[in-house]
Amino acid sequence: MKIATFNVNGVNGRLAVLLRWLEEARPDVVCLQELKAPQEKFPEEAIRKAGYGAVWLGQKSWNGVAILARGRVPVETRRGLPGEPEDAHSRYIEAAVNGVLVGCLYLPNGNPAPGPKFDYKLRWFERLTAHAAELLASRAPVALVGDFNVMPTDLDVYKPERWTDDALFRPEVREAFRRLVDQGWTDAVRALHPGERIYTFWDYFRNAWGRDAGLRIDHLLLSPALAGRLVAAGVDREARGWEHASDHAPTWIELAAEDAAPPRRGRARKGDG
């Protein structure tokens, strides 16, 4: 089972990129972020023709998350995180696909920090952590997948010293991520690439892609019931270089069947290994 996360940075404006990647990579489950489209403008028909069912939570101009499943429609179990009913941002959706519960999330950016946006980010992180604890308590096979807008360690950012005051790298945010993972989650990409610089995002500015000045902010966290099935993980970097690409590259994992978990292998780029 191949599960991927892809911040598409506008699902309609970059639909051709998404459809090309779906055809080439053929993931079983995809979590999308930054749809930047209201609920009624999600390109359901085009995605259905590509072979995927979908559930989504849209929002005009901003945010928006979706879960796609190849050959089936995900069974939606939740939209929105508990804990702050007045929060109207479309940042979380959850669904069951082929025996796995998938939480697709788009954590707030939080800049400028300090400030109200940073405070909202920390509150959202607290709500996610509380909900994640409940998911773990269920002992179900769960994957928390998406754009977390955090670089957990110095290894996840091209020049750490330039990011010390950024909301994606401030100590409070990295500590929040650590607390979440320490509940018992496995950071899948890092588990298979413990000492490797792997990036999932390259800014459009200052030739970041050309200089490989990237960040690892897209993560796939696995509950104990899934972590033992992890066999591969990587980033489809080449998609970042396509015409009219998102500033993120698709990040993915492969899980063995429940009754078979072969040795793990890491793959940083599609086609390596």
TrEMBL record:
UniProt-annotated site: Important for catalytic activity, residues: D218
Active-site residue list: Y106, D147 (proton donor/acceptor), H248 (proton acceptor)
Keyword terms: Hydrolase, Magnesium, Manganese, Metal-binding
Keyword Magnesium in record: yes
Residue ranges of every copy of the Endonuclease/exonuclease/phosphatase domain listed in the record: 4-248
A GO BP annotation: DNA repair
Annotated positions for site Interaction with DNA substrate: H248
One GO MF term: endonuclease activity
Cofactor: Mg(2+); Mn(2+)
Leading EC class: hydrolase
NCBIfam families assigned to the protein according to its UniProt record, in alphabetical order: exoDNase_III (TIGR00195), xth (TIGR00633)
UniProt name for this protein: Exodeoxyribonuclease-3
Annotated organism of origin: Hansschlegelia beijingensis
